[in-house]
Amino acid sequence: MATPNLYELPAATDETPRNWCGGNLGGDNETCMTTVPLAGAVDAFVVGDSKPEGRSYELRMTGAELDAFAIEWARSRNLAL
Fold first, then answer.
1. What is the mean pLDDT of residues 59-64?
2. 17, 55 Cβ separation under 8 angstroms
């Protein structure tokens, strides 16, 4: 079965975006990224920027792609998983 074009799928409207924040102790969430599941796909997400000037930019990734990114990012930074 072919993977659907994730950019053709809408974000799930019944899901609240999840914020992933770090590094900003001021509490204004200027260092957050967001994820929301994609409707019509299993384990696929819209990844976005929480800052007002970045809200129109997004990536579409499968869960496996996000997992691979997170693992390689942690390894490149010598972070323990």
1. 96
2. no
